[in-house]
Design goal:
heterodimer, A: 7-stranded mixed beta sheet, 8 helices, 7 strands, B: 125 residues, mainly alpha
Chain lengths: 246, 125
Amino acid sequence: MPQQPSTVLIIIPAWNEEVTLGGVVAEVQSRVPEADVLVVNDGSTDRTSHVAREAGARVLELPVNLGVGGAMRAGYRFAERRGYEFAVQLDADGQHDPAAVPDLLEPLRHGQADVVIGARFAGVGTYTVGRARRGTMWFLSTVLSRVSGTRLTDTTSGFKACNRSAILRFAADYPAEYLGDTIESLVIAARSGLRIRQVGVEMRPRAGGTPSHSPVRAAVFLVRAMLAMVVALTRPRGAVRDRSAA
Amino acid sequence: MSGYGFAVVACAVVAAIIFGLLRTRKIREKYAGIWIALAVANVVLAIFPGLAARVSDLVGVTTPVNLLFASAFVVLLVVCVHLSTELSRIEDQARTVAEEVALLRLDIEDALGQSRTGTPPDATL
């Protein structure tokens, strides 16, 4: 445990990520030593929790698999209750470079934003997507840029930093639906008056698993993304709670 | 046995099964109610078959049986949608409970770790 109470919590949702998780946690700790690391084990059937503890992270162990959105809300609730000022969410597969965390926190610390997205820019690294999927992502970015009032290029990025207001908002309402953790959470943030910014980050190839490019999957992605967005945009608005630390 | 007699017996069996489930608490009253109400409605129609004909005349359906099929379809659709919303609500509750359990488990681990090692508690706690 750090002697100085940390104000930054790094939340890593993990589902059967024993292969990559240890390295990711270790890297986060060396790059962002002032932050506490929380791994949310989303009902894994492998040694995810064990690996995370060995690496020195705290582990929030969900008894059943809830999906990324469920794991993230649990993480935000932890951040809310323990009074963290900032929370950064990062994938367990090693795609997000922990070295970018300070860049993401910068606008938050200066009060310029409430939510900062680490956006993967095309052409950097080996991150590629199929044409159909890219089209969908472009469309999502266009609509969400309008909703949030700022230019966003990568709205499906799971690399995000939040300040206290956003933590309180997301602890109350973080959808467990497909794409709810990215698209809908942005809509929720924007519509509750939180300011969203994006910061460019380099994308690294994932350390395990392979992305899929089949046209059927691209079509399913398109339909589900559209549904998620329409539902998110037409939901009743929620307000930011101005409750102070839990 | 006439078709009407068969309908009455079938409804009685359904009602008995539902009642049995209620007694053993395998079904909640709010879900059992709809099935018992439908069984009663069926019995009424079986005893007074003229009723179906009169109602279909009233709403302009030529054959009473078509009215019965159509209304049965609508009722089942409504029940299915209702069950889907109930299931969604319950999934949401399960999610909240799971999160709460995880948070409490971590609280306990922290508390136990503290008392064992005697180190000062996490300052943000």
